[in-house]
Prior knowledge:
By secondary structure, this protein is of the alpha+beta class. It contains four helices and four strands, in the order H-H-H-H-E-E-E-E. The chain has a four-stranded antiparallel beta sheet. It is globular. Residues about 5-20 have low confidence and may be disordered. This is Lipoprotein.
Amino acid sequence: MREIRRLTWLLLAALLLAGCAGNKKASALQRQQYAWSAAIRWGDFEGAWNLVDPEYREANPMTELHFERYGHIQISAYRERGVQAADEGTVVRDIEIGVVNRHTMAERSLRHTEQWRYDPDAGQWWIANGLPDFWRGE
């Protein structure tokens, strides 16, 4: 009888720990998304770049000219329109961003899809698809 109780308690403890791990992962994602959206909203694109997946940064390096181009715009709105968990380590978030051209003062709105990837080795969420492209080929 004691053995059954012990196994029951061990099973409950394991389930609680698994639940806590999932909550920690979700909290970590929420913190990273908040930091990302704050950096974008305030025009801190170099700070946002530090939240981009290191593999993506290595494959797609940013130059001073790239960062200077981001200085020509101001973000007027940043709204989450939807979130989907693609799998356990991937989340997709649909965002609507208001952008003002500082030279013409023209405002426009665009949709951007953020792809978030969990890196179990680093224990961190990364934005997997880089900074938003506010110019789309312009």
